[in-house]
Each structure stands twice: as C-alpha cells, then as structure tokens.
Amino acid sequence: MYNDPLMPSRMLDYRNIIENKYNDLEVIQFLIYIGNEKLSMKNHIIKTNLNFKYNIIDINNIDCNLLNNDINSAVLSLLTKNGLTSKNITTVFKTLKTIDDLNVRKQELEHLMTVAFSRKSDKITIDRIKALVEDEIMTLDINVKEHGLYILGYRDAKEEALACAQKEAKAALVKARQAIINLYKLKNMPQAEIAEVLGYSLNFVQDCLKNQ
C-alpha cells in the first residue's frame, strides 16, 4: 500500500455504498495504512457543502504484542513497528500452527511470506521465515518457487555471488599487474617475453605498463 492521493474520494465512495445498503446503521470508517513510506495521506474532503472525514490507523505505530497471539491478526502483527523480529516471527508461526483448518493455515502462511516480501526484509529475516515455512511445505502443498520472497532470496544470492566474483577478479587483476611490473622493472624483461611467460596478451601487458 502507498500514499494514494485519491484515497479520500475512494473512502467516500465506500461510505456511500455502505450507507445505501445499511442506511439504518451508523457508519464509522477506518483505514489501516500498511505502507513502507511515512503516512502522508489526507483523511478528509472539505469542500462547499461537503465535510467528509474518516479515521486512519498507521500500523507502523502499533506494538506487535497487541496482535501476535491472535489467530485472526497474527500475520498482521509482522507489519507493526517492531513486528519483523526473530522472536515475533516465531511467536506468529506458533500461533498459525494452532489453526486446524489446513486451507486456512496455508493461506495465512502465504500471507506471512507476502508480508516479509513487501517489507523488503533483510536476508536473515527471509532465511528465518523460509526455515519455518519449509516445515509446512509438504503438509500444506505450498508452492514457494514462484513466490516473491524466494525469488528475492535467489536474486540476493545471485547478486552476492556476483559481487564476490567481482572482488576476486579485481584482486587477481591487481596481482597480475604487480607481477608484470616486477618482471619489467626488476628483471628488465621485454614486454613480449613477459606476455609469453605469464600467458597474457601483449596488449594486456602493455596496458599494465603504461606510465611505468
């Protein structure tokens, strides 16, 4: 969810629909904001002959302990200000394990993965959730391969491997340059001979010896 500038108009539309269907009830509207960005949406429309307001609750300001032991809102607690901690993830998972209806439990676990993905969780948090969910994969027939949380984990692992390879390649290049410079300066070896001895191209050797 993001700060939608059209939200006040949408909430007014919802209000009209509710009022038309349940015109004998008093309507009090609440919007729960779960976005990553700081809440900046308006909660009113003030115009000539129109004064409309509704309530906004920023879940980022709610204590996770108010929600994490309740089956109906356990996953929602992960979106709170202190929700995505290892302790709370474990508490929420234990709560979901008490759900007897396997279809409902599967749905809630999928919500849990979606929440972690939407919050751009760090690798440790993602790995923690994966470890817990994997115990239930076979029982609940959860398809994780196409889930954003696992795609994110694969992408992060790929980027980490690429960064490591680049670091190693850079170190090898520095070592190769130094070897070429040493042979050229200390041994007075011709560039063509250096290329042959070390197995590098002559152009590479010449590039390494520029400004020497």
Strands, helices and their partners?
Elements: H1 7-21, E1 30-33, E2 44-47, E3 50-53, E4 55-58, H2 86-97, H3 102-118, H4 123-134, H5 137-140, H6 148-186, H7 191-198, H8 202-208
Parallel strand pairs: 1-4
Antiparallel strand pairs: 2-3
Helix pairs in contact: 2-4, 3-4, 4-6, 7-8
Strand content: 5-15%
Query: How helix-rich are the residues, as a percent range?
Result: 40-55%
Alpha-carbon Rg, integer: 29 Å
End-to-end Cα distance: 58 Å
N-to-C series of helices and strands: HEEEEHHHHHHH
Number of strands: 4
What spatial order of strands do you see in the largest sheet?
1-4
Please report the number of helical segments.
Answer: 8
Taking the sheet with the most strands, its summary is: 2 strands, parallel
Structural class call reads mainly alpha
Q: Which of globular, elongated, flat, extended, rod-shaped describes the shape?
A: elongated
Which stretches of 5+ consecutive residues score pLDDT under 50? none
Task: Provide mean pLDDT, rounded.
Answer: 80
Q: What does this protein structure show overall?
A:
With 212 residues, the protein is mostly helical. Helices cover 54% and strands 8% of the residues. It has helices spanning 7-21, 86-97, 102-118, 123-134, 137-140, 148-186, 191-198, 202-208; strands at residues 30-33, 44-47, 50-53, 55-58. The strands form 2 sheets. Strands 1-4 form a two-stranded parallel ribbon. Strand 2 (44-47) and strand 3 (50-53) form a beta hairpin. It is elongated. It starts with 6 loop residues before the first helix and ends with a helix.
